[in-house]
Structure formats: C-alpha cells, structure tokens
Design brief:
Helix content: 55-70%
Largest sheet: 4 strands, parallel
Number of strands: 8
Distance between the termini: 49 Å
Number of helices: 28
Length: about 600
C-alpha cells in the first residue's frame, strides 16, 4: 500500500506529458470494480489530506494499486477517478446538500424515444421517469442538491466560482472526468464521481447503486482539510461584481455603474459620463479573471496569508484593498488590450456579444480601451501611500514594460499581416507570441510577488516561466481556433479569415512544397469561408496540428522545468497548477486523433 508521503510530494519534478487514450479502459466485471474501489479507499485513508493530489501523484498511486492487484495499466484512468473520489469523500460530506452540485450526463437517457427537452440548464427530465436520470435527479433534488443534466457544460466552473455550490458530485465518461481533473480537482474543489461503463454516448450504463450512495452521502460537518484555490478564484471574480467594483474603483462620473449598457441607454447618459459607463460595463463583463487570480495567488503563496488554507474563505475577506486594486489593474490592462485587439482584427464577438467597435464604432471603442489603461494606472498610483513609493514604482515599471512589449508584439503581427510577402518562419511566430502573450502572465506573477515583498532572484525565474507558459498558451489558442471558441469570438478559423500570422501558418510554409505554399498564400489572401477547408487540408498535409501539439508540450515542459527551481513550495505548487489549467490538455488530445468537424460560420449566441 502506498504511504501518505506520496500525497505530499510536491517538489518532485514534473514528468513528460503523453497521450492518455490507452489508459481509459473501464473494468467490465462488477466484482473487479468493487475490488479496485475498495483498494482505492484503503489507500486514500493513509494519505495526507492537507494538499490536493496532482495528476502525477494520482497516476502513480493508481499504478501501484493495479500492479498490486495484477491488473492492466489500461484501468489507470478509471482507478484515478475512484482514488480521487475516496480522497475527497469526507470533504464532500462536510458540505451541506444545498451547497452540492450534481452533474448528470445526457447519454444516460434512452437514445430512442426520450421525451425530455433541453432547457437553459440542460436536459429537463423532471416530468419523466423513463430512465435512471429521473430517479437520481428526484432523490438529489429532494435532498436539496442543485442538479445539472449537461455533461461538460462550461457553466460548471462559473457556478462554482460564483459561490452557489462548494462541492461537486457527478456521473460521466472517463474522457469528461479527465477534463474535470484538470479544471476542478486540481483547484482543490471537493469532488466525487462514478464513471460510466463506456464512453459511447448512446445508451451507456453506470453502477446505479454507487450513484445513489454518492447522492445520499450523509452530511457530516467538519472543518476543511485540503488547501484550495477556490477562495482566491472567488475573490478575483468577486472584484468585478458591480457593487464590489464600485467600492474598489469608485466611478468618478457614472455613479450608477457598472450596469449593462445598451446603445439606447448610452444615448440617455451625459456625454462626459458615457466613456466611463462603457468602460465599467466592459470591465464587469465576462472573462475568467485568471490574471488577477494569479496576482492574488502569488501574493498569498509568498505572504502566507492563508487564503488557500482551512480558513481561506475568511482570509480572502481580509486581503488589503491595496492588493486587490493592484490585482484589478492587471485585468483593466488585459481588457483594454482585448478592445484594441478586436478592433485591429475586426472581430465580431466578445463574451458572447458584439464587440464594442461593432456596436459603437471604432473611435468610441479605441477611447474606451484608452480609458481602461488610465484606470489601471490610477488603481496602482492611488495605493502608493499603503504600498510604499518604491513598491508602487516597481509595479508601475513592470506594467509599463508589459504594455510596451504587448504593443511591439501586436505591431509585429499587424505589419506581417499587411505585408505583401507573407513569409513567416516558426521562430518569427514564436517571437511574436513571446511579446504578445507572455508579458501579461509575467506582470500578473511579478505584481503578486512584489506586493509580498522584495522579488530578488524570483524575478528572472518568473519571467522565464511566463515566457514558456505564454507561448504554450498562445499555440493552444491557435489550435482552439480550429474547433471554434465558444467562450469569446464564436467563430472557427477566425485567424485564417482575418489573415493573422500564426505558428500553424509558419509550420505549413516550412513543410509544404512550393506549389502548395503558393496555394496557401492564395487562399489566405482570399480570406473567405470557402477557402477555410482547403487551408485545413493543407495544414493536415503538412502535419501542422501534430507539430503544434509537440511545440506546446515542449514549452510546457520548459515552464515546468523552471517551476522545479522555484522556492518556496507554495509558489512552486501554484506554478504547476497554472501549467495544468492554462494549457487545455483535452484540446490538445483532439488533435492527436481524428480531426473534429469544422464550423466556419458564427455559431449561435450562447448568452
């Protein structure tokens, strides 16, 4: 049996990432599933619960269990789910029923003849008793659960961060549960699951008694044990709720803001207050708030404020407002760059709505972006008495440096896009990425560290980490463009249609024969929906998507290698967490198998 020390080995260097498709077999024999489940519960009892298990630790323990029971490695993924559920069981039990979210997959319904319809929250099966979903849902709702029948829904993390629920239980296939490990378990959110017997989305099955047992897990109050980033996520998101935003950054002219602004409402405002109203509205709208979260989390890791510990909910309420305003400034600069970037690329959508320049015109949108930049600097300068003059100056210097690098990277992209000769090497593209994306990560990391004290040798390490993570993130975004971006721009292949330079384009030019290079340049010059499938065919011919995945893995490993050198352990653990969550491993896996269908036209507005 594994010892408790395995659950606390955070200083072990990360190992190389690889495909996990062969590790997702489900034991088909019920007695074997019972044996493996019991073994996981035994191992979990001996683990240190103070820190959440990361993926490497879970996999190592799962392999030990399988080896001891002489079972094949194909069961690793299933065993990891059982192990995680056993690890979190007591902490899920400590959450009242009304603060638990129960996720059910639509594929448990009968594929033929299901009378239930979908509403805004998923499958509406409350009036139907034709399948197990209704039984599970009825019992869960009787206990007070919030229930969602829509696996993999992007609103799950939003529900968690909003504060409506504090724990999740679910039923899903191993593909979906792997993504849950990336986004939920690693954040330290109490979570349990029962895997489906297959990943076939039609008429699958599940151990129904296990599900009902999980649903009826008795509420047993106790203090939280495991460190979690959830409280800091909520603090970062909460800063942009209208009331809190007014407190931290009081509007100077539009005292009722932020509220949802429409063109009609804008016409009713005083013309001097209009810019501030639009800026605050955009600042409060959408986004994952990952950059202010990074700043707050780095500050907590170095200052030891205990925001990830057992008293984290209270400790986040005690964070100095000067720290919160500096974290907020990171988001104002980010939002300003989005406004300007949307103009330069003429993107149609942002956060599920028309972009500012499409709605109000380019001059107004430029002005709103400029206002947000000014607001960011004001948030820092007004805290100089609390921060100290040197600390405020250091933060402003880093913000200015990041702003200039971003402009240089964006300028390089624009000059390339407008040039007649569209030759670009992969190295050129990566240089642009290092300037466009990495500075925002670096600024968020540095500001958090500087707020906690002198940065010292960490400055260079954080810069290196941000560079590698930023490049990996941007390449991942390039790949995401080929499956559609449901979060923001709502359109697949937007980079091709916008004529933007990407590393995918550069890799294709490097690998294709001259005649195909000419075709690629011709298609990009046309920039119409009709040529997108042809561009994709050339990318596939050149092996571009697989090469891009390998590049992501390369820079991910470099980021982790830098993190291996970082002290203290609390900060090193945070950097590992950022790598695991910023880079969408599930997206990368899509490009290692059959390509997903491409939807070029804008999709329906999800909001």
């Amino acid at each position: 049996m594994a010892t408790a020390s395995v659950g606390t080995t955070s200083s072990t260097p990360r190992r190389r990432r690889r495909s996990t498709a062969h590790l997702k077999l489900v034991p088909q024999d019920r007695s074997l599933r019972e044996r493996l489940r019991q073994a996981c519960e035994q191992v979990a009892q001996g683990l240190d619960k103070s820190q959440p298990l990361d993926k490497d630790q879970m996999e190592a323990l799962a392999r030990e269990i399988l080896q001891r029971l002489q079972q094949p490695e194909g069961y690793v993924g299933w065993t990891m789910v059982m192990l995680a559920s056993a690890f979190w069981r007591s902490q899920v039990a400590a959450v009242p029923y009304h603060k638990r979210l129960f996720l059910l997959p639509h594929c448990l319904k009968h594929a033929e003849g299901c009378p239930a319809d979908y509403d805004e929250f998923g499958l509406d099966c409350r009036k139907c008793g034709a399948c197990a979903i209704a039984d599970f849902r009825t019992r869960a709702e009787d206990l007070g659960y919030k229930v969602l029948v829509a696996e993999g829904s992007p609103i799950v993390m939003k529900i968690i961060v909003s504060g409506y629920v504090d724990a999740i239980i679910g039923v899903a296939c191993l593909n979906v549960l792997e993504k849950a490990i990336d986004k939920i378990l690693l954040a330290g959110i109490p979570c349990m699951a029962v895997p489906l017997h297959s990943s076939d989305c039609r008429n699958t099955s599940v151990d129904e008694d296990w599900v009902m047992e999980m649903v009826q897990l008795e509420y047993r109050p106790q203090k939280p044990q495991t460190h979690t980033y959830l409280h800091l996520m909520r603090a970062a998101s909460g800063m942009f709720e209208p009331q809190r935003l007014r407190q931290l950054a009081p509007p100077l002219r539009y005292k009722d803001g932020p509220v949802h602004i429409t063109p009609a409402k804008l016409q009713q405002l005083d013309t001097v207050a209009a810019t501030e109203a639009l800026a605050y509205d955009f600042l409060a709208k959408g986004g994952k708030h990952s950059r202010p979260f990074i700043t707050l989390a780095v500050y907590d890791a170095l200052a030891g404020t205990g925001c990830t510990g057992p008293e984290g909910a209270q400790r986040t309420q005690e964070l100095p407002e000067s720290v919160l305003r500096c974290a907020m400034s990171i988001e104002t600069f980010h939002k300003a760059s989005l406004v300007h970037d949307d103009i330069e690329d003429d993107d149609a959508y942002r956060y599920g709505e028309e972009t500012l320049h499409r709605r109000y015109g380019i001059p107004t949108a430029i002005n709103v972006g400029d206002y947000l930049i000014g607001l960011g600097y004001r948030l820092v300068t007004r805290e100089a008495p609390q921060l100290g003059a040197q600390c405020a100056a250091d933060i402003l210097e880093k913000l200015a440096e990041a702003h200039m690098k971003l402009s240089e990277g964006q300028g390089s992209e624009l000059l390339w896009r407008d040039a007649r000769q569209k030759r670009l090497t992969p190295v050129d593209a990566l240089k642009i990425y290092a300037l466009k994306t990495a500075p925002a990560f670096e600024a968020a990391l540095y500001v958090g560290a500087r707020l906690a004290g002198e940065v010292g040798p960490l400055k260079d390490l954080l810069a290196q980490f941000a560079r590698h993570l930023g490049i990996a993130f941007q390449i991942t975004n390039d790949l995401k463009d080929w499956v559609g971006d449901q979060d923001n721009k709502l359109q697949a292949a937007a980079d091709v249609l916008g004529g933007r330079p990407t590393v995918l384009w550069a890799l294709a030019l490097e690998a294709l024969e001259p005649e195909d290079q000419q075709l690629l340049e011709q298609y990009t010059a046309e920039a119409t929906a009709e040529v997108v499938p042809r561009v994709r065919a050339l990318y596939e011919k050149a092996g571009v998507f697989q090469k891009a995945v390998r590049l992501v893995e390369k820079y991910q490993q470099r980021a982790e290698a830098v993190a291996d050198q970082v002290e203290p352990e609390t900060l090193r653990r945070l950097l590992y967490y950022l790598v695991d969550t910023v880079i969408d491993q599930q997206l990368l896996n899509q490009f290692q198998g059959p390509m997903v269908p491409l939807q070029v036209a804008p999709v329906a507005n999800p909001s």
